[in-house]
Every structure is written in C-alpha cells, then in structure tokens.
Amino acid sequence: MKLLLTILIPITAIFFSCSDDTPCIVEKYGEAIYLSKSQLRSIQLTEPREIERPGGLYYKDGYLYVLELGDVNNWYEEEVSENQKEVIYHPQIDKTGLHIIDNRIPQNPQNVGFITIPGVNGMAAKGNQLYADSFHDLMVFDITHPSSPELMDSVLDVYDNIPYYLDDSLGLQIGHTVIYEQSDVDCPWGGESSFWYYTDDLAAAESLDAGTGSTGVAGSMARFITVDDYLYSIDYSILHLFDVSGERPSKLADIDIGWGIETIYPYEDKLFFGAIDGMYIYDNSNPTAPRFLSKYLHVTSCDPVIVTDDIAYVTLRNGGECQGFANQLEIIDVSNPYRPNLLKTYPMENPHGLSLINHCLFICEGEFGLKTFDVSPIDPTAITLNNTVDIHAFDVISLPDITMVVGNDGFYQYSSMCSEPTYLSTISF
Is the Cα torsion angle 298, 304, 307, 313 positive or negative in sign? Predict the structure, then answer.
C-alpha cells in the first residue's frame, strides 16, 4: 500500500485569479511550515485505539502488530484568516503507528495498546527487539513485555530517500502558508483566468508513490524483514541493510533496487522484491551484500509475492496507486533464479496479500473477501477455489492452526482449514 506525496521546497510564487469586472487576487506562497525534531521524535505508548487504515501485519510470540497508516488524504488546507491559509502535506504524527493485539487466546484477542510512531512505514522483530522506521530515523523497541514496548534506542538520520525536506535546525518541512492579496497590476487577460508567476528560481518538487522463535512472521505486504542478524527495509527504490546482531543497529548499505518497490519476501538464501513492474530476485547468500540475479517483468500492477518450494505466487491488482489494470494470480517457477519462468495465470477480482500453508492458498481480494484455494501437492500450479469468506481482506498471516486477516473494517481469525475455515474471533474497526 502506498501514498502519493508531493512536497514543495519553499518557493515564492504568485497565482492570479481575475475576471473583467473584478480585481486580480494574488495568491502568494509564504513561509514554509516545519515540525521540530522533538515533535517528529515524539514516540509514546498510548491506550488502544480503533484501527482506521491498516497496513501490514507482523506476528510474534502470541502478539500481533498492525501498521496504522492514518488518513488516506495526503494534504490539507486550513484557513488561518480572511486572507491567509495553511497548506499541509500532513505527516499525521498523532495517527500513524503500531496497534498491539494480544492474540495468545485467538478466540478472545485483545487490543491492548498503540505505539505512536510518526511516519512509520514498516516493522520487524528479532529476539526482544522490534524495529520500525519514523521518517528519517530507525526506532528500536524493547518488547520483553509485548503489551508495553519501551523505546530503547533511536538511530537517527539513516533514511534519506523520503519525500520530506529535513532542515537540521528547523525540522521537517510539512507545508507552507498561502497569502491572498489584491493586486494593482492589470489582469493578464479578460474572463476567468489563472496562471502561476514565479518570482525566483528556487522551485523544486518531488513526488513518490506517497511468532516463532527469534524472529516473527510478516504478512505478504511486508516492507521490513529480519534474516538472522540482519534487518532489511525498503522504501520505493532503496533496500536499507542493517546489522542487528548487537543492541544498537548498525547501517551497512543502501542498495538501489529499482523504481516502485513495494514488498520484500525472504526465501532460503534469496530475497524476492515485489514491484509495480515486476519481481526482482536477489542472491542473499552473503547477507551483507545482496546481489541482483534477475527480474521477472509483468504488467504494471501492485505486486506482493510469496515463495515456497521454488514456486513464487504473485498477485497483481489494479488501482489508482498501481496505475495498472491487471487482476490476476501468477505462478512462477524460480528454481533457476536467473531465469524465472511463468507457469500459469489465474484471473482474480482485486487480489492483495496472500499466504500458503498445508497446501492451502489464502488470497485477500479486498472487498471481494478472503478466498481459499486447494493447491495440488503434485502440481503446485493446479489450484481450486474452495471457499470465500465475506469480509474485507487486505493482508493475511497463516500459521498451522490459525489464519489472521486484516481488512478495512476489522481483524478476523479463522482456522487454517481450506475447505471451510472455522470462525474464531473478530476485532471490529
């Protein structure tokens, strides 16, 4: 899931609006609006709150962490006075974060807390440490007591490929003021008209498509993973690599993967990246230096991927953020990672996250429900629709006995039976 953000570095610009019988009104960009670094790094544990816009899932030691993305709007206008307003490209510092769900009793899950993390994009864990990003920073939480994580470290300024300008003294630029003035100049032409007049050349703009053991289990929409002593996180083009063998993460490298990177999935000694235009395969036998092997191209679509037994299952879906038109499941042979080979394609309605366990493939189809498919143990390309659960489904984690699903209206749990999943519990949003 991505959010389109368009950030303007401070500029001086004028906008004219006029007609034949009215004076010209000049709309001028004024001062930039900043959030201080202390505001940006205001991390706190609060009371549980309703999940508004869920992102990825992460499960560890009986607890589920649900990414909260906040409001879908990417900018706001607020009138300050009759002739002035503020335009905010809102980072939603009080809304984004991680919901904590105690799921040790799946029949009775409890929403137990919320970690406010400004600008969070993903999370993953190793041992008793949970990692999550916050704009330019990497946050480290102690989850010895999972229901009440404590911030134990902040590794500052390790992410620089984000669509927000950070000033060392002023903080993060999130918007600008706009001032309306009546102009004494003649209107450029008659009738309703408008144009931009730049008074200097400082304009710049940037657009981006805004448990178990030591580690946990991530959903297929994951943007963070841990593999052994290493943490991998992705933004829209860069893989950020950290050594997490000690208490304090150490950044090792930034690796340029390609444009439109959405998800990351580890399998054996490989890393699989789902992107808008394809699936990237990297050799990770040396985890300090992942190496590109190949790229499987497909039509432009959103693209989560999972891999098992050298078979990759990739869902493609359309949507505004994906700029595509395909809704389908692709099954790909990746036994030769240098030459991935498409084996079969199945039409879908609007597939999102997916998970596979015990020859049962779970696919989230958004408003079209959670669908279960039998996968032949002989032919992994032969799948048969078994059941459709009538819920909104965005991402899913399947364990041997339980399947956890999050959608726009709730967190749901079922048995992992393929033919007829048994309902266990719900937390409604």
Answer: negative
What token pair was written down for 101? 């769900």
- Please give the Cα distance from 29 to 17 (Å, whole number): 15
Residue 16 clears pLDDT 70, i.e. is over it: no
The contacts of residue 53 (CB under 8 Å, 6+ apart) are: 68, 69, 70, 71, 72, 408
Contact between 240 and 234 under an 8 Å Cβ cutoff? The reply is yes
The dihedrals phi and psi of 273, each to the nearest 5 degrees, come to -110, 125
What's the token pair of residue 249? Answer: 């993460």
Residue 108 has pLDDT above 70, yes or no: yes
Q: Tell me the C-alpha distance between 410 and 151, whole Å.
A: 28
CB atoms within 10 A of CB 323: 14
The count of residues in the chain is 429
- The answer to whether the Cα torsion of 371, 376, 381, 383 is positive or negative is negative
Mean per-residue pLDDT, 188-192 = 41
Q: Two tokens at 238?
A: 């860069």
DSSP single-letter state for residue 317: B
The DSSP secondary structure of 19-76, one letter per residue, reads: ETTEEEEEEEEEEEEEE-HHHHT--EEE------SEEEEEEETTEEEEEE---S---E
Give the predicted TM-score (pTM) of the model.
0.81
Q: Do the beta carbons of residue 349 and residue 327 sit within 8 Å?
A: yes
Q: What is the overall mean pLDDT for the chain?
A: 82
User: What are the tokens at 144?
Assistant: 């010895």
Question: Is 193:53 a contact under the CB 8 Å cutoff?
Answer: no
Give the Cβ contact number of residue 231 at 10 Å: 25
Nearest Cα residue to 174 out of 87, 116, 94: 87
Tell me the backbone φ, ψ of residue 319, rounded to 5 degrees. 145, 160
Pairing of strands 224-227, 270-275: unpaired
Closest CA to 238 of 311, 160, 335: 160
Q: To the nearest 10°, report the CA torsion of 195, 200, 202, 204.
A: 10
Whole-number Å distance between alpha carbons of 117 and 154 = 12
- Dihedral, CA of residue 226, residue 261, residue 68 and residue 240, to nearest 10: 40
Question: Can you tell me the distance from the alpha carbon of 291 to that of 315, in angstroms, rounded to the nearest whole number?
Answer: 24
- Cβ distance 362 to 403 under 8 Å? yes
The C-alpha atoms of residue 301 and residue 281 are separated, in whole angstroms, by: 18
The residue type found at 243 is D
Of 287, 289, 297, nearest in space to 342 by CA: 297
How many Å apart are CA 318 and CA 408, to the nearest integer? 18
- Is it the case that residue 86 has pLDDT exceeding 90? no
